[in-house]
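ok, trying the design again with the full structure, not the truncated one.
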């Protein structure tokens, strides 16, 4: 992949910013964080002190956006007024990268969860058309994340076939979520490494790692509420080895430790990156 994409360099490390972290990050004179990611839905409603603090950070750091409610697979029409709000937010904060989930969260009302799109050719075409429409309104690319899921209703294609079909038909980039691959591989009994290698290198924009909850040996829950597990670190290392380095971000949504603890996991990402760069050169 390119050394610089959407303003991010391949070997950079980022952190998902939650409102609980805001004061802590502002108080730091120096952090080992190259960029932050926010869900625009969590910041659009706020003015006043929250907006002022957020502006202080966007002036100090590079930011990207990861959406929650675009609902690309929904049977409902796209909310183009919402897309225009996102466009204004991106422009206001000079954010070049906006990603969303390959899922849906509305159908005659908001469902408050990220639900799986049926793995069918018809659905791939439908979602790809909606991605293209969003990109036209935004006047910038939309990056799509492979998601965790717990059921696959109406499945005709494999998850990998469906994901690759959407990427190809929409001609868009991929947010490679390594934890989601591992979680799905356990829950749906497939080879995580084979899935990883089957994704198109040239479409990877950046990556995610996160923690999950092991409810049973055959059931993992994608919580973003725990430390990254050893199998996910191993899979991230394999991702760098196979696809080359890409910017990688740590997600933590609850049970959030202090910034120093989070930076230990960021440091683990950095340790994996140079090791894989050496192997690639060899």
């Amino acid at each position: 992949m390119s050394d610089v994409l959407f303003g991010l360099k391949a070997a950079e490390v980022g952190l998902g910013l939650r409102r609980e972290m805001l004061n802590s990050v502002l108080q730091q004179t120096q952090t080992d964080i190259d960029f932050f990611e926010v869900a625009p839905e969590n910041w659009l409603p706020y003015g006043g002190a929250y907006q002022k603090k957020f502006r202080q950070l966007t002036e100090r750091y590079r930011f990207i956006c990861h959406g929650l409610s675009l609902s690309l697979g929904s049977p409902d029409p796209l909310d183009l007024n919402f897309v225009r709000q996102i466009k204004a937010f991106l422009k206001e904060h000079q954010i070049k990268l906006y990603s969303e989930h390959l899922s849906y969260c509305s159908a005659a009302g908001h469902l408050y969860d990220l639900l799986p799109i049926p793995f069918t050719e018809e659905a791939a075409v439908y979602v790809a058309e909606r991605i293209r429409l969003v990109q036209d309104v935004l006047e910038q690319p939309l990056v799509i994340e492979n998601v965790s899921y717990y059921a696959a209703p109406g499945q005709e294609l494999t998850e990998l076939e469906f994901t690759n079909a959407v990427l190809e038909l929409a001609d868009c980039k991929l947010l490679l979520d390594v934890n989601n691959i591992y979680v799905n591989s356990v829950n749906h009994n497939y080879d995580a490494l084979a899935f990883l290698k089957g994704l198109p290198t040239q479409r990877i924009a950046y990556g995610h790692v996160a923690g999950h909850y092991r409810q049973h040996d055959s059931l993992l829950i994608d919580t973003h509420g725990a430390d990254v597990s050893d199998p996910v670190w191993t899979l991230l290392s394999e991702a760098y080895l196979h696809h080359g380095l890409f910017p990688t971000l740590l997600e933590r949504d609850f049970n959030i430790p202090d910034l120093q603890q989070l930076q230990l996991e960021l440091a683990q990402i950095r340790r994996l990156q140079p090791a894989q760069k050496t192997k690639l050169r060899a």
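Keeping the full-length input from now on. The chain is about 40% helix and 20% strand.
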